[in-house]
Structure formats: C-alpha cells, structure tokens
Design brief:
The protein is built from 21 helices and no strands. It is an all-alpha fold. α5 crosses α8, α7 crosses α8 and α17 crosses α18. The protein starts with a helix and ends in a 10-residue tail after the last helix.
C-alpha cells in the first residue's frame, strides 16, 4: 500500500476533507441553524422572565436576565464567525507557548531513544487548533464560546500527542480555570469531532523532504537517471538554500497552515510542498523534477499546480501572527456582538453538566431499584418447587 493509499484510509481524509464549496455550505447551514436557535432561546427566556417578574424583586430579575437582549438579536455571519475562530486559534498558540508544549517535530540524532522522541514531538498546539476548527464546522461560536472549547481542545491534544498534563496541573496553569471548566466541554468536543482524534500533520513530511534535499546537495544519493539533461543543473548554493527553506517552511506550517483551511483541502504532503515552494520556488521545482521519470509531465504539472494553490492559501496569513490596529478594532467589535447574540441556554456549561449528572443520578437510582426488585422476584419464583405461577391470559 502506497503512502497515498494509506492516507485515504485515514479519518482525516474520509471525514475532514472538503471542497471549498462544500465546506462553505456546511458552515452556512451551521450558522443559520445556530442563529434560529439563539432567537428561539431568547424568546423562551423573555417569556420566562415575564412569568417570573411578579414573584421576584426588580433587582433580582434584572440580574437574572442581564444577558438577554431586549431588541431583535443581531447574529453573527459566517465570515464573522470564521474571524473569531481564527483569533481564538491564535490564542491557543499563545496558551500553548505559556504551557511550554511542543509545537513541531524535532530532528533527533541516533543517540536519542525512541521513548524520548515520542515524549517530545507532540505537535500539541497544531492538533488542538485542528480540533477547534473541526468542532466549529458543525457548531457555532454563538452556541459554544471558543474560550470554553479551546481549553478542552488543548487538554485533549496533550493526551493525543503524548505530552499529557494532569488535569489539576493543566487547570492551575491556565489563569482563571478550574478542572470542571475543562471537563464541561469534554463530551461536546468529542461529539463535534465525531470521536476521531487522529490528525495528520505536514511536519514529518517536511523533515523527510529536507533530509533528502540535504543528501542531494551533498551528492550522498546515487546519481539520478538522466542526470542534468533531464532535471536541469543542481541549484547554486544548495546546502544553504535547503537550510534556509527548511526554517521558512516550518514557520508557515506552524502558523499559516494552522490558521487557514489548508488541512481541509489538501493532504499533508501537499501542504509541506506548498510551504517549501513559498520558501524557495526554484529549489522545489527542481526537487519535484527529480521525483519523476521522463514522460510524467502531466502528473508533475498537476502536483505543481496543486502545491501553488495551497501556497496561495498559506500566503493569506502572516507568519508573524501580529494583529494590525484595524484588525484589533474589528475583533473587539465582533467580541461585543458575540456577547449580545450568544445562546442564553448554553452560557453556563459547568452548570449544565452538573444538572445533567444529577438528573442521570436520579434515573440510575430508579433503574437500580427496579433491577433489584426483578432479581428478588426471580429468586422467589425459582425457589418455588413447581416453578412460577402460570399467568392468566
């Protein structure tokens, strides 16, 4: 089975690969349904407030319903939701830096054990961001606030990528967070991820490509069929250019690739090639030429075209991650708008989880009593010498 065939069996390809049009349609549907539910929840809250106003003081009533807007709810658009999700993904990167979790694959020498490698190539932030982006395809920020989801996503990613934090240690490290805040979104997130936690990243592909380029630059690989007549002359100063391209490409993979929709539209190897193409287009075109025999021009052109499309997407986000003054003002306005159009029934996830557990506890107690009575009845009938009584029809 080829690498491409293996990737096509992954949940990332089967469940999380979309065309741009299908992804936009799904997000538009999610936004429309969430907006309808927000307006319906606000209507119910207003009716409940009207019914309870006679039984509570004016001050108590005002405190209980301060989050319910008086006018028609102005909900977020799809583009506005995407901008907020992207901003909270950046916050996830910052939080990961604060927690000092691994951000990309490291290149190890032969003296390092496999256990040490597994413990430190976590890709935690990258995985957490993909969890967030996947979750908000079928869920809206108007229903579940990104602050609640990103903490749970990052905690999940520490376990998925073998860089586990104890829950209490994780909560203590995040200011203003308790363990129950992280757990409150646990089932919501796993449900939104369709219970799939595997994320295929382009970092390992980058390290493999760079190692091969380094070997080519030093002539450590056997001579390629056809030589310079087929592939062209080897680029000048290749060792230095490979080293520079490696660093630039890795920055794009750690930022732009995560904050765009690249993972939904392209394979990890295509994203890796696009990042290298941005870093040094001439070098990567020569490298791709080296990978094909003569007569494979159509396939080669298709790969170059796909990598260029992905590169266009990666260039949309600056690797510096610094927001401009205009962008900060826009995000501030969107945050205020979100505050006014959140679903009032979903604002307290901790309280909802607690109420659900208490309700399940009552139900479980009834089930236990019922089963106990059934066992006692069965035992009593079994002790009867002639068996249980025949029921009359």
């Amino acid at each position: 089975m080829s690498e491409d065939e293996r990737y096509r069996t992954s949940t990332q390809y089967r469940l999380w690969s979309y065309t741009p049009d299908s992804l936009l349609a799904l997000r538009s549907t999610t936004n429309r349904i969430a907006a309808d539910r927000v307006r319906e929840a606000v209507r119910r809250a207003r009716e409940a407030r009207a019914l309870s106003s006679a039984d509570t003081s004016e001050a108590e009533n005002e405190r209980a319903t301060s989050a319910i807007p008086e006018r028609e709810v102005d909900c977020l658009t799809v583009d506005e939701e995407l901008k907020l999700v992207a901003w909270y993904c950046r916050q996830t990167l910052s939080l990961g830096d604060h927690l000092k979790v691994p951000t990309d694959v490291k290149v190890w020498d032969s003296t390092v054990s496999q256990d040490e490698k597994d413990a430190d190539d976590g890709l935690v932030q990258a995985t957490a961001i993909q969890y967030i982006k996947r979750f908000y395809i079928t869920n809206s920020v108007m229903t579940y606030h990104p602050t609640d989801i990103l903490r749970t996503a990052l905690f999940f990613a520490t376990k998925t990528e073998n860089h586990y934090f104890r829950l209490t240690k994780f909560a203590d490290a995040v200011e203003g967070t308790k363990a129950e805040d992280v757990l409150a979104s646990e089932f919501l997130l796993t449900q939104g991820l369709r219970f799939t936690f595997d994320v295929r990243h382009p970092f390992r592909a980058l390290e493999g490509a760079v190692m091969e380029l380094q070997a080519l630059s030093k002539d450590d690989l056997p001579a390629l069929p056809g030589g310079e007549a087929v592939f062209g002359a080897k680029p000048q100063n290749m060792e230095r250019r490979v080293r520079d391209a490696h660093g630039k490409a890795r920055e794009y993979l750690k930022t732009s690739a995560l904050l765009t929709d690249a993972y939904f539209h392209f394979t990890p190897s295509q994203i890796m090639m696009a990042a290298l193409m941005i870093a040094d287009k001439e070098l990567i075109q020569w490298y791709i030429n080296c990978k094909f025999l003569s007569g494979a021009g159509d396939l080669q052109e298709k790969i170059l075209t796909t990598a260029e499309k992905c590169a266009v997407m990666l260039r949309q986000v600056d690797t510096s991650l610094e927001s401009s003054t205009t962008e900060k003002k826009e995000l501030g306005a969107l945050s205020k708008k979100l505050k006014k159009c959140r679903n009032p029934e979903k604002t307290d996830l901790v309280g909802l989880l607690r109420a659900k557990r208490e309700g399940e506890g009552v139900a479980d107690e009834k089930i236990v009593k019922k089963r106990k009575l059934e066992r006692e009845q069965s035992a009593k009938e079994g002790e009867d010498l002639f068996g249980p009584a025949i029921k009359k029809s």
